[in-house]
Design a protein that fits this description.
about 220 residues; 7 helices; Rossmann fold; alpha/beta; single chain; globular
């Protein structure tokens, strides 16, 4: 990994309480190169620069690390090119991670990265959370459900409801305006979540605003 990229990843990870070793740097560098290579043929991300991927994908994914239950079963809904589930698994091996996405080519890439990095205790599923087979096999299994830009907050909370255990957490990763969606929830009787808090921050070494909305299943 180039020195400038390594410095950004190192400093950014430290902000979230993560200290990377040589093996982690090699893994993130491989992930970065494979994402750029696949992205030439398949539209996995609109972000094309190495720095942009480290900041807006890797570090953005790691921003939820302080709010995870460890160890735990984690479901990543709408995981895309593997974010945030794969980076979180890379820095916290105790997580049992399930990625789900409705786009086959993105799931193919997730599986490629899982194999390439030799990750264990993580699976990538092609499908939708409302599919009957997925609902039956994964209902009530997870300590944490997480999503990054999967949908609006209302849709996420309704579709995710079957999957967390009682007392389990939902972490909705949003941009700067995410907290405004909280005001709409009082009108949604069918969402049985207790809102816990909004965490607002900027991504390391940038002015990019982010928020994490934390819920607990009642």
């Amino acid at each position: 990994m180039e020195a400038e990229n390594k410095e950004l990843l190192t400093e950014g990870a430290k902000v979230f309480g993560i200290y990377l070793d040589k093996k982690a740097y090699e893994a993130f560098d491989l992930y970065l190169k494979e994402l750029l290579k696949w992205n030439q043929k398949i539209n996995l991300t609109a972000i094309r620069s190495e720095k942009g991927i480290i900041l807006k994908h890797f570090l953005d994914s790691l921003s939820v690390y302080p709010y995870l239950i460890k160890p735990s079963m984690l479901l990543d809904i709408g995981a895309g090119a593997g974010f945030p589930g794969i980076p979180l698994k890379m820095v916290e091996p105790s997580l049992e991670v399930t990625l789900i996405d409705s786009v086959r080519k993105k799931v193919d890439f997730q599986r490629h990265i899982i194999r390439t990095l030799g990750l264990k205790g993580i699976q990538a599923i092609h499908g939708r959370v409302q599919d009957e087979e997925i609902l039956k096999s994964m209902e009530g299994r997870f300590d944490i459900v997480i999503s990054r830009a999967f949908s609006d907050l209302r849709t996420l909370l309704i579709l995710s409801l079957p999957f967390p255990k009682k007392g389990g957490r939902v972490l909705a990763m949003k941009g700067e305006t995410g907290s405004g969606e909280i005001q709409l929830l009082s009108k949604i009787e069918q969402v049985r979540y207790r809102f816990q808090e909004t965490i607002s921050f900027s991504l390391p070494r940038s002015s990019l605003k982010r928020s994490i909305l934390l819920f607990e299943k009642e």
